[in-house]
Amino acid sequence: MGAARPAVVGLVFNESSPAIADASYGPDTLKVLFQAFDEAWKEVAPRTSHDEMAVEAARLKLASIVLTVATSQSRDAEQIKSAALILMNIGGKVRQ
Length: 96
Description:
- This protein is mainly alpha-helical.
- Helix content is about 50%, strand content about 10%.
- It has three helices and four strands, in the order ββαααββ.
- α1 packs across α2 (about 50-70) and α1 (about 25-45) crosses α3 (about 75-90).
- The longest helix is centred in the middle third of the chain and has 18 residues, at about 25-45.
């Protein structure tokens, strides 16, 4: 088990977070997660290559990050979006 990483916009992103495959979310939380992903994608997409594989890789990475920072009690799409955008950006460039 790794040490906790710094909190990002009030959410803790650490190596001991439950695996995405083991997570389950209720309908209200899923609605928030979809909203967070869609809003974050609006900012990530213009900074992503137009290559179809690069777009798919960026979308998968963003989805994984959204699911990683979320909890089953997540209710703030803006907070999740902000955390995901921080984790997607290194030096102002979107990582793929």
